[in-house]
Amino acid sequence: MPRTIVSAVSAAFDVARWDQLRPGPAVQGGRWLSSMLSRLPGEPVTVLHGDGDGEVGFTGAVITDANAYEAYNPWMILRRPEPVFPEVHASGRRVAARLGDEPEDMIPSLLLAAPGYLGDPVGPAAHRPEAVTECLSGVCAWARRAGLATVSVLYTTPAGSAVVEPAVAALGGASFDLTARSMMRVTWCDDTEFLGGLPRRRRIEVQRQLRRLSALGCVVGPGDARMRFDEVIEGRCELLRWYGQPVDEAGERRRLSTLIDTFGADLLLFTVEADGHVVAHALFVADGRTLQNVYVGTTKKGRDTPYAHLAATYHAPMRQATRDRFDWIDYGVGHADTKRVQGCDAVPLRGHLIPL
User: Fold this and answer.
1) 3-state helix, strand, coil in the chain (%, to 5)
2) Which of 23, 45, 79, 183 is 20 to 30 A removed from 101 (C-alpha atoms)?
3) CA-CA distances (angstroms) from residue 326 to 157, 286, 311?
């Protein structure tokens, strides 16, 4: 069996080496990972297995804190009484039934997923179940030596699940419905066609919301992340606090600075301004033919301003994205009902857990 390498990722993450695996989606590309791996709540790792046409890769992190962010925390996803994702508990089946209910039954865990909620394997052999099984077998051996309790692979798409699920089953693990990824197909060539293509009632509602914002003196449109740096950080941190999530302002500033330096003109900001101040924003990365939502932010005034979040996150980018440039707008996971109303399709995502 080829040697499985699990190595810590630092600021010296080897973008060129990783991109030799030819990852497809934006959130698995080297530029993205070099900027955003620190979003995972643990020590980042890279998994490289095999070589040449037989290589498979994953990114992830070693999760040691039972209170780590819920969406990357297998114990919270599977055992916390308040569900992180309702889909996990919808079947009534207890996943990994032989494991107990306490955090130490699953944590510490090696999480395999890219920040941005995608856990599909990458590499020339990523579509081969036998290669993925060998890779995960080596990963489990490494994790046992490190004293970890579980290995989890989260957020696999149907294509990724087709190879990860049999590999996990072969290693004594379990797979489960996790959540859905919201994808907007870009079919319009300009703003007029975008609005004209909406169902009549939806078109009237979008126009009404934009008129209401205009009547309140708000300006909706593209912005410059470098020029509005502090306001973007302010809105991001305020929104995290609003949702009760931990806030690391210094970390957010580092990540945004790295995104700006790494993506340049491919980092797109959309804002709602009131009295010259950004009260709601949405940040996107243009990668290939996908416009990837990175994150959103809203100040208290933005929360109190009707439709500000919707305008920054949906109306403005949708009116700017056209089919000559993009095939998809990727809105990621969470808030699926709101995204469905905006016209997104839902791609089911699966989770996988291997007890050690």
Assistant:
1) 40, 25, 30
2) 45
3) 20, 8, 20
